[in-house]
Design brief:
Two copies of one chain form a homodimer.
Chain A: H1 7-25, H2 32-39, H3 43-50, H4 53-74, H5 86-100, H6 104-113, H7 117-138, H8 150-172, H9 180-192, H10 199-213, E1 216-219, E2 227-230
Antiparallel strand pairs in A: 1-2
Helix pairs in contact in A: 1-2, 1-4, 1-6, 4-5, 4-7, 5-9, 5-10, 6-8, 7-8, 8-9, 9-10
C-alpha cells in the first residue's frame, strides 16, 4: 500500500507532476501518460479531478497569476506612498509580464498555453474580476464616459483580452521584432487609452511603473516558484 | 474504376465535402472519416493535400475572405464616387462581418474556426497583406506618426488581430450582450483609432459605411456561396 494516496494527495500529486513536466518538456510534448506515471496514479483520476490536460494547464496559469498578484500585494506597504489605481494596476501587470520571461521553459509553456481555447475564456474571467475590483472601486467611469455603459464594458473586456493574448503570444514566440519592455509599454498605452482619455497621464504612469518594477527582484526555483521583492535599499 | 479521380479532383472533392459537412454539422463534430467518406477517398490523401482537418478549415476561411473582398471589389465601379482609403476598408470589413452572420450554420462554423491556433496565424498573414496594400498606398503614416516605425507596425498588426478574433468570437458565441451592428461600429472606432487620431473623421466614415453596406444584398446557397450586390436603385 506504499503508493496509496487519498483524494487530495492524488489531486496535488497530479498538479505538481503536470507543472514540473509541462515546464520541463513543454505543454505539447507532455502526454497524459507522462503525468500519471510521475504522479503514480491512473488516468481515470486525472479525468476525475481535472477533466483533461488542458484544464490542468489553465489551472497552473491561474495560480501563476495569483502568485504574481499576491507578491505585489504583499509589498504594498513598502510601496506605501504610491496611489491606488492606474499606477498600481501597471505595477501588477508589469510584474506579470516580467515573470513570464524569467525562465525560458516557463516562457515556452505560457506561449503554448496561450493557444488553448480554454485560455481565452479563463482570461475573460480574470479580466472580469479585475474590472469589478478596480473599475468600480476607482470610478474610472468618470474619466471615460463610455465606460458607464455595461455593454461597452463587456466589449472592452473582450477586446483587451484579445489584444493581450495576441501581442504576448507573438512576443513570446519572437514572431514580432519587439523588446519585451517596449511591447509592455505600448500595450499599456493602448490598453489604458480605452479607460483614460488623457495620454500624458498614461505616459507619466508608465514611466513611474517602469521605475518601481525595475526594483523588484524575481526568483525562480527549478520547479518554478515566483518571488517578487523590493530591495531593502529601494527609494521610490 | 468508377470512383477513380485524379489528384486535382480528389483535392477539390475533399475541399467541397469538408466545406459542406463543416457547415452542416459544425467543425468540432465533423470527423476526418466523415470527410473522406463523403469525398470517396482515403485519409492518406487528405493528409497529403491538406495536412489535417484544421488546415482545411482555415483554407475555407481564407477563401471566404477572398470571396468577400472580390464581391466588394467588383462593385467598386458602382461605388464610383467613394474615395479610397478608410471608407473603402470599412465597407469591406463590414461586408465580411455581415457575411459571417448571414446563416446560423456559417456563424457556428466560424466561431469554431476562430479557436484554432492556426487561425490567428492566418489572420496575421491577412493583416500583413492588408497593411502593405492599404497603408503603404494611402500613407496613413502621415496621420499617425507612430506608424512610421516598422516595429510599431508589427505590434499593431498583432494587437488588432487579437482584438478582432476575441470580440467577434464573443459576439458569435453570444457571450457578450452586443448587437452585431454596435459591435462592428465599436470595433471600427477602436481599430481605426490606432491609425487615425481624428475621432470625428472616423465616426463620419462609420456612418457612411453603414449606409453603403445596408444597400448590399447577401445571398447564401445551401452549401454557402457569398454574393454581395448593390441594389440597382441605390443612390449613395
Amino acid at each position: 500500500m506504499a503508493n496509496y494516496k487519498n483524494g487530495l494527495e492524488t489531486k496535488e500529486s497530479l498538479y505538481q507532476s503536470a507543472k514540473k513536466i509541462f515546464y520541463q518538456k513543454g505543454y505539447d510534448k507532455t502526454t497524459v501518460k507522462d503525468i500519471i506515471t510521475d504522479a503514480r496514479t491512473k488516468q481515470g483520476l486525472l479525468n476525475y479531478y481535472f477533466g483533461a490536460k488542458e484544464n490542468l494547464a489553465v489551472q497552473i496559469y491561474k495560480d501563476f497569476c495569483n502568485d504574481v498578484v499576491f507578491c505585489v500585494d504583499e509589498r504594498k506597504a513598502e510601496l506605501g506612498s504610491l496611489p491606488r489605481g492606474l499606477l498600481f494596476d501597471m505595477i501588477g501587470y508589469r510584474a506579470y509580464f516580467k515573470a513570464l520571461f524569467t525562465d525560458a521553459s516557463v516562457t515556452r509553456f505560457y506561449a503554448e498555453v496561450s493557444k488553448l481555447p480554454l485560455f481565452a475564456r479563463s482570461m475573460l474571467d480574470l479580466r472580469d474580476y479585475f474590472f469589478n475590483l478596480e473599475l468600480e472601486g476607482e470610478a474610472y467611469m468618470g474619466i471615460n464616459p463610455r465606460l458607464k455603459e455595461r455593454r461597452y464594458f463587456e466589449y472592452l473586456k473582450s477586446l483587451t483580452v484579445g489584444m493581450e493574448i495576441q501581442v504576448f503570444r507573438d512576443v513570446l514566440e519572437k514572431q514580432i521584432d519587439l523588446e519585451l519592455q517596449d511591447a509592455v509599454d505600448w500595450f499599456f498605452f493602448d490598453y489604458y487609452s480605452f479607460l483614460f482619455t488623457d495620454g500624458d497621464y498614461i505616459h507619466e504612469n508608465i514611466e513611474k511603473s517602469r521605475k518601481v518594477v525595475s526594483r523588484f527582484t524575481f526568483e525562480i526555483s527549478p520547479v518554478f516558484e515566483i518571488s517578487l521583492s523590493v530591495r531593502p535599499d529601494a527609494k521610490l
